[in-house]
Specification:
The protein has 274 residues and is α/β, with parallel strands linked by helices. The chain is built from 10 helices and 7 strands.
């Protein structure tokens, strides 16, 4: 049923890895944990995005709030025709437009995301504006579980609940790791689903690497009784490369030649089944 989306997953992981290897730069595992989330948004009919027209006023807004993983969005935006695909080969280079952290000078990027914790607030602002002007735009925001340490996340969560922004959808990429180790060990946040629910949000729990599960979570959009929606997506950091999966030291580390060979072998194997 999801054969085309699974194929897109394989394509995106290879594209991200090739970009990182070309320039020996990037946060590969953080990107890989949210691949299925992004493919669902852009190719699964969830977010309203228009080919060759990143500024269409009827579009939905997609924010990657975990900004160190912004490069995962670049191949998709190029595929949508927002900028030439040749720009992917100039990732982080002075003569290119694609930085390690995204900013809204890049077509298709809705906001600057280098500093963590601001995507939910930006999405809430977009959503409130749409409500005031009686527009159908939605905002989708991908945040990390480690990013949920930021107080601005919870300020924005209160704001969105108060204004009944049911056109705001947050996806928490719960890969259980950040650069220093396990998120539960560094600062235990308890049950994130219960925490978001206590802030007045409708909560759906999904397998972040299963299209059937992700799509089931998104199916409730518009049926949350006026509440903003959050998907708590259980994921694996580094999903798709065996020696990176679930290992915090790979957060921003670049593999050596032997490891690159192994990674390329791993990326030829489909790790997504539905």
């Amino acid at each position: 049923m999801y054969k085309e989306l699974i194929s897109k997953s394989n394509w995106l992981r290879k594209s991200i890895f090739n970009m990182a290897m070309n320039q020996k730069s990037g946060h590969i595992p953080s990107c890989f944990s949210m691949v299925e989330i992004l493919i669902s948004l852009y190719y699964g009919g969830v977010a309203k995005v228009f080919k060759d027209n990143p500024d269409n006023i009827e579009r939905d807004y997609v924010f990657i709030s975990k900004g160190h993983a912004a490069m995962a969005q670049y191949p998709i935006l190029a595929d949508y025709g927002f900028f030439p695909k040749e720009e992917l080969n100039k990732f982080t280079q002075p003569d290119g437009i694609l930085g390690l952290y995204a900013d809204n000078r890049i077509p298709g990027i809705e906001g600057i995301s280098g500093s963590l914790g601001h995507g939910v607030g930006m999405g809430a602002g977009i959503s409130l504006n749409a409500k005031i002007n009686k527009k159908d735009n939605k905002a989708f925001v991908v945040v990390g579980d480690g990013e949920c340490y930021e107080g601005s996340i919870w300020e924005s969560a209160m704001f969105a609940s108060h204004y009944k922004l049911d056109n705001l959808i947050v996806i928490v990429d719960v890969n259980h790791l950040c650069i220093l180790g396990k998120t539960e060990d560094l600062l235990n946040q308890g049950d994130l689903g219960e925490k978001w629910e206590s802030f007045g949000w409708h909560v759906e729990r999904v397998n972040g690497h299963s299209y059937s599960s992700i799509m089931k979570g998104f199916d409730v959009i518009g049926n949350t009784a006026g509440k903003p929606l959050v998907l708590i997506a259980d994921t694996v950091k580094g999903k798709g490369i065996s020696f990176m999966e679930g290992i915090s030291m790979w957060h921003n580390k670049i593999p050596n030649d032997e490891q690159i060979k192994q990674a390329n072998k791993d990326l030829e194997i489909n790790s997504i089944i539905d």
